[in-house]
């Protein structure tokens, strides 16, 4: 059977059958189910290549991320693939290995194979992103660049909540363990912390920049030990876990001697010792929003105005933050009883 037979069996038009496979969200649940039932009974499988000749679309979208091993990105990717799968779209995934040159090469290559791109935490300059968006629909995640559509996870807002939490516990100074130097998110988080620290009358010291890896947190832990800060806000949870491990091994008690806050809440940080206070990022919702915006632009007969969506974050308070030490920081090097404890 062909598409005409399916349309007749379902009691709908041929265009409605086509829409059921290319844009199912545009149909009512009742109509969609009638078409799918008729298609199943007829063993009908749409020919994507043939449909592409008519629509000019491939049915493919691309997703570009800096580092697939970074736990921040899988929830975003899942949000994209879940929605794309329901919309009968295939997803091409590429990783840039945190290289701007590689990112540019991948975008140029993918734009020849897909109908649109979702680019996460881009390292490219604004002009390069505008050039890409002029060729095919592009949506940025965790980066803004006018006039390109974007979905931003407002971890900066969560960072402000984090400082309010620390100030309520009596802390007057803290260290920001900075992430990658070229990261837009790192710049946003650092700026938000500095602005809020000024408002709250707190002193901020910046350590880094560091690559966003566990080992970087271990390195940062040593720098924190020799400071006078009573709290640390870390760029992301991977690094924060490294900080916790190093502090524990060096005899620094968390939170009794030093409070620690991470960001993202995508790892099982609630199982850390102590459980990590962190800023929760809505990665899955950001991925869903990004692909929804992208498909709307791919399927529109008219050029749509760019949109910017903000996904808000929130502070999740656990056990790694506590009151400021009354007598200031205890120096583990001066404690004869301080012993190294193995990390988990």
TrEMBL record:
Pfam families according to UniProt: LacI (PF00356), Peripla_BP_3 (PF13377)
Keyword Endoplasmic reticulum appears in the UniProt entry: no
GO function terms (MF aspect): DNA binding
Start and end residues of each stretch annotated as Disordered: 320-344
Residue ranges of domain HTH lacI-type in the record: 1-55
Top-level division of the source organism's lineage: Bacteria
Keyword line: DNA-binding, Transcription, Transcription regulation
UniProt keyword Cytoplasm, yes or no: no
Bias-annotated ranges (Basic and acidic residues): 328-344
Protein name stated in the entry: LacI family DNA-binding transcriptional regulator
Organism, scientific name: Nonomuraea insulae
